[in-house]
Design goal:
The protein has 3 helices and 4 strands. By secondary structure, it is of the alpha+beta class. It has helices at 4-13, 54-69, 94-115, and strands at residues 15-18, 22-27, 42-46, 80-85. 30% of the residues are buried. It is globular and about 40 Å long.
């Protein structure tokens, strides 16, 4: 995901799941909206300067991207997922990031199943 309006849509109108190392926002477009309901799910990352310097931010983003690559198949077609890293993500062991990603995704997918 690269477009600002996609990030804004997911963060403002999507479901939210907060965890100690990250916050995830999942937006599922409805049939009457202009966003394509079909197509691949899109994933975007927000890693602010509060996480660390450029080297740290890029490392955190690469780690999160690697974790989401194996989990993106679980997302519904056409969905938008934004993962925002918290400052704790910079020093988090991989096992804790995996746990937080799985927990947040599980919660968001359960919420989206209830809403349909």
């Amino acid at each position: 995901m690269r477009r600002r309006h996609e990030f804004t849509l997911a963060v403002r109108r999507g479901n939210r799941a907060g965890r100690p190392h990250l916050v995830a926002h999942l937006y599922l477009p409805s049939a009457d909206e202009t966003a394509e309901p079909e197509g691949n799910p899109l994933v975007g990352f927000i890693v602010s300067k509060a996480v660390g310097n450029a080297v740290v931010r890029n490392r955190v983003q690469r780690r999160l991207r690697h974790l989401l690559r194996d989990r993106v198949h679980r997302l519904p077609a056409g969905s938008l997922l934004v993962v925002r890293a918290n400052p704790k993500a910079a020093t988090a062991p991989t096992e804790e990031l995996v746990k937080d990603v799985d927990s947040a995704l599980g919660r968001l997918l359960r919420q989206s199943a209830k809403g349909q």
